[in-house]
Amino acid sequence: MGMGRRQEHYQADLWVPTTDLPRSPGHPFYDKLNALLAEAGFDPHVEDLCRPYYTEGVGRDSIPPGVYFRMLLVGYFEALDSQRAIAWRCSDGLSLRAFLGIPLHEPTPDHSSLTKIRQRLPLEVHQQVFVFVLKVAQDKKLLRGKTVAVDSTTLEANAAMRGIVRKDSGEDWKDYLKRLMAEQGIEDPSDEDIRRFDKGRKKKKVSNKEWESPADPDSRIAKMKDGTTHLAYKAEHVVDLDSEFVLAAEVYTADQADPATLVDSVVQAQVNVVLAGGEQEIEEAVADKGYHKAQTLADCQTCNTRTYIPEPKGRKYNWDDKPQEWRRATEANRRRTRGARSKRLQKLRSERVERSFAHVCETGGGRRTWLRGLVNVAKRYAVQVAGHNLGLLMRKLFGVGKPRTLQGGSGRSVGAFGWWYWLCGRRAGYSHGRKWLLSPYTAA
Known about the structure:
Elements: H1 28-40, H2 42-50, H3 65-77, H4 83-92, H5 94-100, H6 111-120, H7 123-139, E1 147-156, E2 165-166, H8 173-183, H9 191-200, E3 211-212, E4 220-223, E5 229-240, E6 246-253, H10 258-275, E7 284-286, H11 294-302, E8 306-308, H12 324-337, H13 340-362, H14 374-398, H15 411-414, H16 418-428
Helix pairs in contact: 2-7, 3-4, 3-14, 4-5, 4-6, 7-14, 11-12
């Protein structure tokens, strides 16, 4: 066997024919996903959506809309939370170049190009891409939409608590403390004096009515799932309990209460089902006790939607100055929640809605947003959840919902993609033992 030495310095070839460039055998997941998108007419559809926002015949050719949205989908499938990470990953991976349809002699889009395209395209276009995925599921006879579950989570904003200022005076935290100390007769305090004063002070809670972030005015002070306090947004999912598809993924400011956004999210889910070609009306809505409010229950009843929302213990009502519709809706909801069906629906809600948050926010890179502004965050999050629905659709059709699902798996878990991994393994010379089971992303 011959052995060569790695050259530390070498002269690049002046000219390399394209036939000599390395080619990727492709990733079976992304190849199947591309075939599914091509069958549904994804690229012509998004080009028609984006055409009104481009000028024909002016400047150089822009990035195809299909490439832009595919790169955002890669962010979900590869758990990348920033545009820089997405751009680097797409330029580094041969299989992702094949997924995007970019040859090796052409550069992949930079992160700044993603920003320009996102600024050019309105939120409605991103939401229509979300609806397109639901339409594919509807065409495959997988979408239901009769019973939905609603829940929300927080998304950490790209702004720091140390940078908040008072709305009335524009003071930052340090200047605010200096003013409080001056009112108590302490002049020219040092930084150590300020920290000691702040530590011993009572009633240090900050309010969204008094404080805001100049870097991201749309973000709000909120308590995160881990108990810490950050500037954040609120994301709300409406999940079909039968098929597990997310019918609506709305982003709100974090200071909006859950009962205030329930009806809007359910109505948007119904609109998305209709736009996707479905005829089923949402008849039942399931949520936790944080969504319980008499007015919200009455609004759902007006929309012909039965609610299954547990009532908080110890809550007392005074119906003297309240509409009778509120009382009837509350009592009807109370009767439904005491039945066995409500317990089954609550169990499904806690399982399937939380699973959607785990996929989108935890393993999908959506918990921390690096964009600023409610509209920008909503644009990215809509495509993020569209990627989740695509992964669920792939799992229902082909048995695998993410490109990393098969790494380290057994032969039975390979399923529909087993033959492809076996073939790639033989081509790479790994046909012995179980090495052919390793995916291109398996860690060493």
